[in-house]
């Protein structure tokens, strides 16, 4: 089944990421794997990973002849185009989303395995490969509200006519994206219309963007943690509230 519009799949490391093994990924124009998620399927096109990703976890060289590795040198400039890490949220699911928006310019951006919900019961897997570190839940000034950061990503995507959806079937998600199924991904350009678009309050979106501009928290290197002491967490939390307000109100 060939893809009918520019639809990009982003795969994270949650246990349900393995659903991609059973899917016909030809409905996607490209597949972006985050960190260890290249192990989920051979049909990934891009692997995006942070500076501290262990070399021993990289895919074998023989597996990469037609694939591209995306590191900070690639994703930091794209992230800066969308306001930088402090406002976007310093975790790889959002970084991958912004990189894909800028570099791949999709019409649909679909997430799988990125719900950022971690099972606490002893012995249960937090990631498809077993127990892992809950990176998005770490104490970080940019991650006070994962829900708000997901709304911001939706707003940025919608500003360039891109819908953002969540293909997860988990009952809970920190992402406020509309839910969709793999069957939805084969829709053509004509049928696409407004499908998958969460209505956002345009006035609230502009208010949040203006507040970001007024604060001017930008770290061009992308290494925002080196300057985190210069940022006011309360003011960032206030901006998060604006993004949540944008999602709660009718468009």
Can you walk through the features of this model?
The protein has about 250 residues and is an alpha/beta fold. It has one domain. Helix content is about 30%, strand content about 10%. The protein has 7 helices and 6 strands. Strands 4-3-2-1-5-6 form a 6-stranded parallel sheet. The relative contact order is 0.16.
Tags for this entry?
251 residues; alpha/beta; 6-stranded parallel beta sheet; globular
Topology of helices and strands:
Blueprint: E1 7-11, E2 30-34, E3 46-48, E4 68-70, H1 72-81, H2 85-88, H3 92-104, E5 108-112, H4 146-158, E6 163-166, H5 189-192, H6 202-215, H7 233-248
Parallel strand pairs: 1-2, 1-5, 2-3, 3-4, 5-6
Helix pairs in contact: 1-3, 3-4, 4-7, 6-7
Overall geometric form: globular
- Tell me the count of domains: 1
Low-confidence stretches: 126-131
Q: If strands are numbered along the chain, what order do they take across the biggest sheet?
A: 4-3-2-1-5-6
Which structural class fits the helix and strand makeup? alpha/beta
Strand content: 5-15%
In helices, the fraction of residues equals 25-40%
Strands, count: 6
Largest sheet: 6 strands, parallel
Summarize the structure.
This protein has 251 residues and is α/β, with parallel strands linked by helices. It has seven helices and six strands, in the order ββββαααβαβααα.
């Amino acid at each position: 089944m060939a893809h009918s519009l520019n639809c990009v799949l982003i795969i994270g490391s949650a246990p349900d990421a393995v659903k991609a093994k059973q899917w016909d990924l030809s409905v996607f124009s490209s597949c972006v794997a985050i960190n260890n998620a290249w192990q989920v399927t051979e049909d990934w096109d891009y692997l995006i990973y942070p500076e501290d990703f262990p070399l021993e976890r990289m895919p074998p060289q023989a597996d990469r002849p037609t694939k591209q590795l995306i590191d900070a040198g690639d994703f930091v400039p794209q992230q800066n185009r969308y306001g930088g890490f402090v406002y976007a949220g310093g975790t790889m699911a959002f970084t991958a989303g912004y990189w894909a928006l800028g570099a791949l310019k999709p019409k649909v951006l679909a997430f799988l395995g990125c719900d950022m919900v971690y099972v606490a019961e002893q012995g249960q897997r937090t990631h498809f490969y077993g127990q892992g570190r809950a990176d998005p839940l770490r104490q970080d000034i940019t991650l006070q509200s994962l829900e708000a950061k997901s709304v911001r990503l939706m707003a940025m995507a919608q500003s360039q006519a891109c819908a953002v959806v969540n293909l997860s079937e988990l009952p809970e998600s920190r992402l406020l994206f509309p839910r969709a199924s793999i069957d939805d991904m084969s829709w053509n350009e004509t049928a696409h219309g407004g499908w998958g678009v969460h209505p956002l309050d345009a006035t609230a979106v502009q208010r949040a963007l203006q507040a970001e501009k007024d604060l001017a928290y930008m770290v061009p290197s992308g290494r925002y943690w080196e300057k985190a002491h210069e940022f006011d967490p309360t003011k960032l939390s206030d901006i998060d509230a604006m993004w949540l307000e944008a999602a709660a109100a009718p468009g």
